[in-house]
Amino acid sequence: MASKLLHRVRAVSARLKYSRTLSPTLAAFASSRLLSDVAPSASTSPAPQSSGSSDKFEHNAKSSSVRSSLKDPELAKFSAIADTWKDPSSARPFEGMKIVDVGCGGGILSEPLARMGASVTGVDAVDKNIKIARIHADLDPVTSTIEYCCTTAEKLVEEQRKFDAVISLEVIEHVADPAEFCQSLSALTIPEGALVISTINRSMRAYATAIVAAEYLLHWLPKGTHQWLSFLTPEELVLILQRSSICVKEMAGFVYNPLTGRWSLSDDVSVNFIAFGTKNSQ
Fold first, then answer.
1. Per the record, which residues fall in region Disordered (predicted)?
2. In angstroms, rounded to a whole number, what is the distance separating the alpha carbons of residues 261 and 258?
3. What is the pLDDT of residue 256?
4. Pairing of strands 246-257, 272-279
5. Secondary structure in 3-state letters for 97-117
6. How far, rounded to the nearest angstrom, does the alpha carbon of residue 118 sit from its chain's CA centroid?
7. b/e burial code for range 43-77 (CB count within 10 A of at least 16 → b)
8. Which of 36-45, 204-213, 225-234, 237-246 has the lowest mean pLDDT?
9. Residue 46 and residue 220 in contact, taking contact as beta carbons nearer than 8 Å
10. Which helix (H) or strand (E) holds 163?
11. pLDDT, tens only, 113-158
12. How does pLDDT run across 253-274, given as a tens digit for each residue?
């Protein structure tokens, strides 16, 4: 079940990149469809698309080094079992799963998760985002079941909420205390449950692309959306998650092709990357 979640979330996450921000513009919905047939909203920003293959993540505990690499034998192995990750006759592979989307914005990820059968809770600290998410979700009986709350992960922990999977995309670089935030995400995850988190690497390449290019040259995001010093390296994120009882199983990067206007998964984690882990059993 966790593998199914990773397979789907990695696909949608690349398409979410730069189609939302952690500012009032988060309320804008992507104009293209996400995984399932999600109707576009009146106000949209460009929606990147994703294609590519999965990448295996390897971590050396002694050197704390992180690398992501493609291996032909590994690709062949997972290709052979790819059909088992999703029942081709089922349009709702997440049926019965409880998933929380932390930092859900306008619901751009929450909605396709609900369409695939999950019981979804979307939380965001910006009340305007939650109101717009509810309005859009109510247009469809399937997505109208999403529980949207203007709250934080920490408050959900206080309420002793638990989920089969916790997802937080492009959020951790905006929080005051990443370690405390990951502790909260872990506390929301059931033992052996899944955690998916994406962010931006603190590298010079990321500064050039995610800040200089995206904010000042291409104007994809409002100026000042990101602070370079708030970014985390893959090594730092792995360490933080390990200290929060999360074992990172896989990591992949996102790469944008300006010629095609498409995003794809890559072994390059120097700018945007996504990590998949599981909660240690207790």
1. 40-68
2. 5
3. 80
4. antiparallel
5. CEEEEECCCCCCCHHHHHHCC
6. 16
7. eebebbbbebebbbbebeeeeeebebeeeeeeeee
8. 36-45
9. yes
10. strand 163-169
11. 999 999 999 999 999 999 999 999 999 999 999 999 999 999 999 9
12. 988 888 898 888 899 999 999 9
Residue 217 has pLDDT above 80, yes or no: yes
Beta bridge partner(s), residue 32? none
The Cα 193–Cα 23 span in angstroms is 30
Give dist(CA 200, CA 198) in Å, integer.
7
Sheet holding 262-266: strands in order across?
A: 50-51, 262-266, 246-257, 272-279, 189-200, 163-169, 98-102, 119-124, 147-150
* pTM for the structure as a whole: 0.71
| CA 28 centroid distance within chain | 17
Find the length of the chain: 282
Token readout for 223 is 């100026």
Nearest to 93 by CA among 152, 165, 26, 154: 165
255 is written with which tokens?
A: 């790469």
Q: How far apart are CA 99 and CA 137, in angstroms?
A: 16
Quote helix, strand, coil % in the chain, to nearest 5.
35, 25, 40
